[in-house]
User: Fold Hsp70-binding protein 1 from Astatotilapia calliptera.
Amino acid sequence: MSEDRQTRRHPQNLQGVLQLAVEAGSAAEGPAPPEPMSEERKTWLREALTELCKGQMDEVEQMKQCLAVLCKEGSERERGGEEDREDDDEDGERETAFEMLSELCENLDNARDLMTLGGLELCVSQYLNHAQSGLRWRAAQLIASCAQNMPQLQFHLLSIGALPKLLQLTDSDPNPTVRVKALYAVSCLVREQEAGLQAFLSHDGFSVLMRGMQSENEKLRTKSAFLLLNLLMSHPEQKDTLVAMGMVQQLVSVLRTPHSPVHEHVLGALCCLVEDFPQGLNDCRNPALGLEELLRQRSKELQGKEESQEELDFCERLRVMCFSRQQSDDTGMDR
Assistant:
């Protein structure tokens, strides 16, 4: 028994405390009754819960302090000299505040508290269009951190107009990091979120992804294609919209660019547009695209490359769906 006491570890956080409760409940279901909790154990548990609650309050206070920094009015940059340096210091403080908030809001309770404190409205209204790119992308990153897997916060961000601003940043911001971070936030608002998808469609989001895949920014190209593939897999009913806007032709043109990671997602998206959708199939079979020869050549290039196996699988699958069946159909017609 003494050895058991020595090896028993006290939980270090709320998750550990909850795990302790689950284990205690599981033990209670067994044939042997659990031993009574000692006074020492009860005291420790009360203190642990008190400390954790205090820690949560401390984090709320930290968020309030960060928001106070972000709410400060900046000096006018036209005054120059020493005041320019002061402005630089203020921007540095704000960047630090954003980074701290992003870290704190990995905790879902903190993300919800930030919404209650008005932090998300501050991001959307003042910082997504801020003159400093370092503040724009940090605001977008914070929005993404809060929106990820949090329907309540997703609905709130949609209601305060975050999505059209993020799409605009993705589409046209001069800073490449801002564009990538904004697209990440868009993804967190529209994936597995029907209201987000409808807002995305109403603001012509697929055209933004199309242009993103044609960008010189490699990260933006890859992430745009990945989001397109994800949305097609989750919402096959959007095939008609995409084919009607010429997405097949645009994707094939991307495949003709120098080989890069974006091609795997592009091939996957083409497979989605072809599967059980005759119009997409007909577009891919258009001789003017030269897709059959392109896929044959790409398959040869990818053979034996373990790191490209998924891309090769998409490539072969697309070839079979588009052209092996076509040959079978043509043979059948000849007979």
Remarks:
- Residues 17 and 45 are 8 Å apart (CA to CA).
- Residues 39-71 form the longest helix (33 residues).
- Residues 238-324 form one domain.
- The radius of gyration is 27 Å.
